[in-house]
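Notebook entry, structure prediction.
Reason for the run: the old model in the group folder had no record of what sequence produced it. Starting over properly, with the input documented here first.
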Amino acid sequence: MKFALLASGSKGNCCLIKNEDSELIIDCGTTKRYLNQCFERLHYNYHKADGMLITHTHKDHVSQLRMFDELPLFSCAKTQRPDAHDIQPYDRLRIGSFDITVLPMSHDCEGTVGYVLESGQEKLVYVTDTGYIRRDVMPYLVNADYYVFESNHNIEMLMQTSRPVFVKQRIINDYGHLCNEDSANILAQVIGDKTKEIILAHISQEGNHRQLAADTLIDRLKQKELPCANLTIYAAEQFGIYVGGNKG
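New structure, fully documented this time:
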């Protein structure tokens, strides 16, 4: 399994995932021009993808849906596509040769979900835009090969921004976004001996630093005496392609 994170944050989100014979896209925020530039750089023909998965319908995740009208669309939230496949939390899907589990998230947008994608012996967890992880969701996250996982803000930095109080409250509540510390605590509980890569995602450009998000996770793993010397940890940029997964 290979993946390419094209954009991650409040200005847009998109991720490509492929195995030997199937391709999927998760979310399609940001701009049409930027997405086409990414596809050109990666020599990727998105028209041939087997489907698109939507995490939720905030603009930064669905702004370019019309680009992908010919692809099968899977969403728990209602979209403008009348032909979209309606999915529900804990559904198990088979798209191409991917087995996909739909997981409920806690965000201020109805129908927000995350995904676990499995192919052969490999597993990828994709979780962004959630205020917390439900206890019954945790077992699904255990011992994945790859994680694309939210680490949105540092609470102290967020409080020092000029954002209105109600925006800060929205971000830190149970229907907002995971802070660095909560993200690190969750990941320290679920990673296992199979885990190779952790991509920290949806990092706030005002209320966080990429290095701070990564350092918070590394410190937590060391506190729990979990091995991280051979573990790739990358804090995603808002705009910038990160290619990960099986290099074989």
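Summary: The first strand starts at residue 2 and ends at 7.
The old model has been moved to the deprecated folder.
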